[in-house]
Design goal:
The complex is a heterodimer of chains A (262) and B (263). Chain A is 83% helix and 0% strand. With 262 residues, chain A is an all-alpha fold. The model of chain A has no long low-confidence stretch (mean pLDDT 90). Chain B has 263 residues and is α/β, with parallel strands linked by helices. Chain B has a single domain, classed as Rossmann fold (3-Layer(aba) Sandwich). Chain B contains eight helices and ten strands. In chain B, helix 3 packs parallel to helix 5, helix 4 packs across helix 5 and helix 7 crosses helix 8. The longest helix of chain B has 21 residues. Classes of the chains: A mainly alpha (262), B alpha/beta (263).
Chain lengths: 262, 263
């Protein structure tokens, strides 16, 4: 039994690594035997060497920190504002009506389309980048929050009221936790799109950050650096996704196993 | 808790459908520690009545007098009345993000009772509804019958004088329902509280109650009050008695007659 399971696990691991390994081998073979200019596909070793170089001279860490900082600040303030306003709109119906047109119109504009304007207004520094990420995070969270809080089962509210809960206790003790799955769905999208927008805005207007590193590598036709950065970006994206899933389980332990059955 | 309902009227106004009268000229007396069931066709305002008594809705006119004092819809004073009244719904209304224990503690927590005392009281009530070992479970991990017991414990832990039950067992299978009925009777006898029990099930109403109130619809009002004099404690054998079956038949006729009349 134990042995069978081990070989099964081993088999799974083998199966999982088969494709990435094949891609690497194919890459290696193509570069060695094919007549591919290194501008299109650099040597694997060169990508590795670039990684070591950028790691040792501190540039990689620098650009990574700059990027992550922008992403984190934008995401944090944007989604905090989104959740906050969403709750307010759900609580005060007239406020929802007041914001309805504005919110739905500005939501329909893809946030990346605002980048040129923000650059004109605020230049090439950190602020317009963080603002753009924040705007995206805001719009991705405000609607799910509004809908989540607005659609809480009235039975839960009645139950709490019947036990004497006041408005504040209803809001924080019932509406918010009950709307949590919906709010978190928004936060999840906000987190992933923050990263996407970060790279986009750094590519078009960067002087630092991972997006800038990519664009800079393009300008100097340094494809190996570009591949190196892409791999780092991939790892970061992967980590971000894992982090979001992990916190979801921590924030909503009662949802465990529920999503699978539904 | 003693309860008197005088000339109660509840209407709903909507712009496109005009005025709908849910309850009209409704009078009802409930004695201290009495078990009263309310029967009636769907839409006769049974649930509305319970929610008005629980303070969840406001009547259009009329009075609800508990222990001689009218319920005042004053945000400060209402709290006192509400605290003495607890309500349990058909679909439990448990908070899915709280464990069994935390669900039961909810009412105590919002009243600011300290955590050690809360824990103690919750454990006591978990035992009372036979859910030992399930303290840390989330509602969705429990069966319907168990969830309804949690809801019952969550209501009882606030030591109400009046317990309102809105078709609490309607969503349960027949066997679980019978077990829950028996347990409810035991709890009622032990806790010495007044119960108003809304149901569709004629047999259930007669089995449980001291008096069965039959309501008519459009507008909802009391049509008949049938005292049930069978001795207590009752077990399921009373359902086989001639007296039980006669009462059941006459109540059934009363309800179906009304439904036919209104089509």
């Amino acid at each position: 039994m134990a042995k069978g399971r081990f070989s099964n696990m081993f088999g799974r691991l083998l199966l999982k690594s088969l494709l990435p390994l094949s891609i690497l081998i194919l890459w290696k073979l193509a570069v060695t035997f094919g007549d591919i200019p290194s501008i299109l596909l650099p040597k694997l070793e060169k990508v590795g060497a670039d990684f070591v170089k950028y790691l040792l001279n501190g540039e990689l860490i620098h650009h990574m920190t700059v990027s992550l900082r922008r992403c984190a600040i934008g995401f944090f303030f944007g989604s905090a504002a989104g959740v906050g306003l969403g709750v307010l709109l759900a609580w005060f119906k007239s406020l929802e009506v007041f914001f309805d047109v504005t919110l739905n119109f500005s939501r329909a504009i893809p946030k990346t389309a605002l980048a040129p304007l923000l650059i004109v207004w605020f230049g090439f520094g950190d602020f317009p980048k963080i603002l753009l990420i924040g705007l995206a995070a805001f719009f991705y969270t405000v609607i799910p929050t509004l809908e989540g809080v607005g659609n809480v089962d009235n039975l839960l509210v009645k139950s709490a009221r019947s036990m004497g809960a006041n408005d504040r206790q209803i809001l924080f003790g019932v509406l918010l936790p009950a709307a949590m799955p919906s709010i978190y769905a928004g936060i999840r999208i906000a987190a992933t799109s923050s990263f996407v927008i970060l790279l986009f805005v750094e590519i078009i207007s960067g002087n630092s950050g991972l997006g800038f590193l990519l664009e800079d590598a393009r300008e100097s036709l340094n494809t190996s650096t570009m591949f190196m950065t892409l791999i780092v970006v991939g790892i970061l994206g992967f980590t971000l996704d894992w982090l979001v899933r992990y916190t979801e389980k921590k924030v909503m332990p009662w949802q465990k196993g529920k999503t699978i059955s539904r | 808790m003693k309860l008197a309902i005088r000339n109660l009227r509840k209407e709903y106004n909507s712009d496109n459908r005009g005025t709908f009268v849910a309850l009209d000229r409704l009078d009802l007396e409930v004695a201290e520690r009495e078990f009263v069931s309310i029967l009636g066709p769907s839409g006769c305002g049974k649930s509305t009545l319970l929610e008005i008594i629980a303070g969840l809705q406001e009547q259009t006119s009329g009075d609800i007098i508990t222990d001689g004092c009218p319920i005042i819809k004053d945000s400060n004073k209402a709290q006192n009345v509400v605290k003495k009244t607890a309500i349990v719904f058909q679909h439990y209304g448990l908070f899915p993000w709280l464990t069994v224990q935390k669900n039961i503690e909810y009412g105590l927590k919002i009243r600011g009772i300290e955590s050690k005392k809360r824990h103690e009281m919750a454990m006591h009530h978990i035992e009372m509804v036979n859910l030992q070992g399930f303290e840390k479970f989330y509602p969705h991990e429990l069966s319907g019958g168990m969830q309804q017991r949690v809801a019952l414990a969550r209501a009882l832990v606030n030591s109400p004088d009046l317990l309102l039950l809105d078709e609490p067992f309607a969503a349960l299978d027949a066997q679980t329902r019978e077990i829950c009925q028996r347990e409810l009777l035991k709890l009622w006898q032990r806790m010495k509280i007044t119960i108003i029990f809304v149901t569709h099930d004629v047999g259930e109403a007669i089995f449980l109650s001291d008096k069965v109130v039959v309501m008519s619809k459009e507008p909802g009002r009391v049509r008949e009050i049938i005292p049930i004099d069978m001795p207590r404690p009752r077990d399921f054998s009373v359902r086989l008695k001639e007296e039980f079956r006669k009462t059941e038949m006459s109540v059934r006729l009363m309800i179906s007659e009304k439904e036919v009349q209104y089509g």
